[in-house]
Specification:
There is one protein chain. This protein is of the alpha/beta class and about 290 residues long. Helix content is about 30%, strand content about 20%. The strands form three sheets. Strands 1, 2, 3, 6, 7, 8, 10, 11 and 12 form a nine-stranded mixed beta sheet that branches. It has a two-stranded antiparallel sheet with strand order 4-5. A two-stranded antiparallel sheet has the order 9-13. Helix 5 crosses helix 10.
């Protein structure tokens, strides 16, 4: 690995993930791309998460543990759910990031070993500002493996900037387009009311890439940050949607997002990604040399 490649900051927000945080960090420590700083942002965990991270950090100088700022808006009483998980912790991570490029890793998931290297190469090849890849259902058998991206890389598996920008505009509610200050002022639980919700929500399509682990250039931080639910232009209809809002913000602001459907992220979800019903193609799995 060329040590002169750009420094990449990997931000890992974590809240009460004592059972999974070591796996998540391990998948980043062992990335084929080595010029990393790993910023673990403890988001007010009450279990043993923090001590686990401290122990791991003693063995790898690239790891830095910081505490997230307090988030009084974490729980929405009207919706009876946590709607702001991780948004503040990601912004805290930005404050500590020194990398020319930035990405994320969720504390209950993992990445294939060449996830970041592939994103880096694609970002450089296409001159992109922001690159997302694809996910596959978490399975322990994929931990510590890497894949040949050429198996999945063709024009049918690429979404280009103009199409992503068009999605951002379709997904943007009318009020947000015309009266952005009013959009921020109306409480979210009211935006979801019947009939009126059509004014605040657009097409409701999700960001099509794996939105929690984009790789993007530092210049993004000059204009885009994660936002609390009340300020999001692209929230999910049920609340949250911090990643969706961030990624569509970048698409609207920079017009230079790319999505590559290469399964590099191991996501702990109930159902398999229908693009890969049989998992990762065995021919794509590469030996770890």
């Amino acid at each position: 690995m060329n040590s002169q490649k750009q420094l990449i900051s990997v931000i890992i927000p974590v809240y009460n993930c004592e059972k999974t945080i070591a796996i998540a960090i391990d998948s980043i420590i062992n990335q084929t791309y080595k010029n990393l700083e790993i910023i673990v942002v403890n988001d007010a965990s009450t279990d043993t998460t923090k001590s686990i991270v401290q122990t791991i950090a003693q063995k790898d100088s690239r790891i830095k543990l910081v505490d997230a700022e307090d988030d009084p808006d974490r729980f929405d009483a009207k919706l009876n759910r946590n709607v702001n998980a991780g948004w503040s912790a990601r912004n805290t991570g930005f404050q500590h990031a020194h990398g020319e490029l930035i990405t994320f890793q969720d504390a209950d998931d993992a990445s294939l070993l060449n996830r970041i290297e592939i994103q880096y190469d694609l970002l450089a090849k296409y001159g992109a500002t922001h690159v997302c890849i694809d996910w596959i259902q978490f399975d322990e058998k994929y931990l510590g493996t890497k894949i040949d991206p050429s198996t999945y890389l063709d024009d049918t598996r690429i979404i280009k900037p103009q199409e992503i920008y068009a999605m951002s505009q379709r997904s943007k509610g009318l009020i947000a387009k015309i009266f952005p200050s009013l959009n921020r002022a109306i409480p979210f639980h009211l935006k979801r009311k019947r009939v009126i919700n059509k004014l605040f929500f657009g097409s409701l399509e999700n960001y099509p890439g794996q939105g929690n682990c984009p790789l993007f250039r530092r210049e993004v931080l000059e204009k885009v940050r994660f936002r609390k639910l009340a300020d999001r232009v692209w929230p999910s209809f049920m609340g949250r949607g911090a990643d969706k809002d961030f990624n569509f913000q970048v698409a609207e602001t920079f017009h230079n997002n790319y999505i590559f459907f290469i399964p590099l992220y191991l996501w702990r979800v109930k159902d398999q990604n229908q693009r890969y019903p049989n998992g990762i193609d065995n021919m794509a799995i590469m030996p770890d040399k």
